[in-house]
Amino acid sequence: MPQPDVLAVSEDVRESFQPVLQALPEVRDALAGQQDVVGVRPGYQYPEGGDPVPSVVVAVVPDTTPVSAEELEGRFGVPVSVTDATVEEQLAQMDTAPVAFGTPGGATVSPLEAMLRDEVVIAFAPPKRGTYEPQDPPNLPLVQEEMGLTVCVSPEAGWSELETFLGATRKRLTVAMYQFTAPHVFKAVEDAVTPAHRTFELVLHPFVEPPTAGVKAHDLKTKTEVLKPLDNEMTNRFDHTWATFKTTKRPDGLWASSYHIKVAVRDGNAGWLSSGNWQSSNQPNVHLFGDDADPDQPIPDGFPGEYNREYHAIFESETLASIYEQYIRRDFELCAAQAEEPAEFAAPDLFVPKAVELPEAFGEGGEFFPPLRVDRVVKVQPLLTPDNYAENVLKLIKSAKKSLRFQNQYINLRGDGEDFHELLALVDALNEKLRIPTWRSASSSAT
């Protein structure tokens, strides 16, 4: 009898992968100990202009060529694809080294392989959760009222709108943020909150210091170059605390692993909601639209291709501002009751692909999008994770009648008990829409 919480593949797909599954043990044995080979798993080969082909996928350290797909295909008689190992695959290898390539168990087994072998993918142990409990009763009602609303995207328009938003601060700024390191964002915040009688309240994810290369090479160090100057300038008008996470040392931590929020409330009457952090990669210092647009402005190196696509919304509504400010202050109180000075995050030594140097004509024909501004009655459903996000987005997906446009950085199903039921329900709802034949062309661009 089918189990609703267990992922499965069709018999046709399983049958198509049988040659690959039979070859996997031999390939793993042959490549065991091979320098720069991170893992071997089943997957797909994507020939140009053709359908995906079941294949053995050899994941290697980026920018290395330890094996030849053509040579392996001739040797083992199945399609082989050689690809860069993901960061997650590299971390898994570090955690389990030496890797036992010849066995089907352990960290080298992907969820796809487990499904193809008809093994249970989703364990029934409860996934990792922090101790955070949603507010009872909740305060996230549907808001329908007249308001000013600006919607914009990065890299082209995010910073100029955020700069204007911060510059209008007159009393207080209340912020919940994942990362805060961009020097131009720091300067704007400093100018906004340090004048007399203004206050700044900040809940921050424990810091990860910026890299020394790339578009964040000149970003600031969180403790010494962001928080300390604000402490010195504002003294008791600046309150900040670190978000807390569930760990062996702190089993009562509030969050499972990340405080992945980007929200700011200004003066209790306006707010900024975003997918992007206050880092240079998310908020490049450019002004392409509006009164401060300058055709002669210096453009950051790598713009736009090396900067992130982010979505931002700025609202002028006391109702919405009060909702988000109340939740940020609740987070502050809960975190402050637990917070200790965090240790600096030490990133492991991972390899990532080098940035591709693009020809000057690469961006020709592209489009930059100016901000959209409306001043009318707007219907807004405030969302927070883990409080009410999944249930409302699930309703939205299921309510779609003709098309569904969906964009996300990644959907990562671990298949090891760490997948939340809510995530599986959202993925299942997306898949249901993709199965509608007349929708395929409209939905296939979802990422």
What's the end-to-end separation, in Å?
32 Å
Work out the strand percent. Answer: 15-25%
CATH architecture of the largest domain: 2-Layer Sandwich
Q: What's the CATH C level of the largest domain?
A: Alpha Beta
Counted up, domains total: 3
CATH superfamily membership of the largest domain, which one? Answer: Endonuclease Chain A
Number of strands: 11
The global form is: globular
Order of neighbouring strands in the sheet with most strands: 7-6-5-8-9-10-4-11
The portion of residues assigned to helices is 25-40%
CATH-derived topology of the largest domain: Endonuclease, Chain A
> How much is the average pLDDT?
83
Order of helices and strands: HHEEHEHHEHEHEHEEEEHEHHH
Number of helices: 12
Q: What is the radius of gyration? A: 24 Å
Low-confidence stretches: 1-6, 96-108, 120-125, 361-365, 440-447
- Largest sheet features: 8 strands, mixed
The SS-based structural class is: alpha/beta
Task: Please describe what this structure looks like.
With 447 residues, the chain is α/β, with parallel strands linked by helices. It has three domains: 11-116, 2-Layer Sandwich (GMP Synthetase, Chain A, domain 3), CATH 3.30.300; 143-346 and 366-380, 2-Layer Sandwich (Endonuclease, Chain A); 389-443, no CATH class. It has twelve helices and eleven strands. An eight-stranded mixed sheet has the order 7-6-5-8-9-10-4-11, sandwiched between helices. Helix 8 links the parallel strand 6 (199-204) and strand 7 (238-242). Helix 6 (158-167) runs parallel beside helix 7 and helix 10 (389-399) runs parallel beside helix 11. The longest helix is centred in the last third of the chain and has 19 residues, at 318-336. The chain is globular and about 75 Å long. The chain starts with 10 loop residues before the first helix and ends with a helix. The relative contact order is 0.13. The model is unreliable at 1-6, 96-108, 120-125, 361-365 and 440-447 (pLDDT under 50).
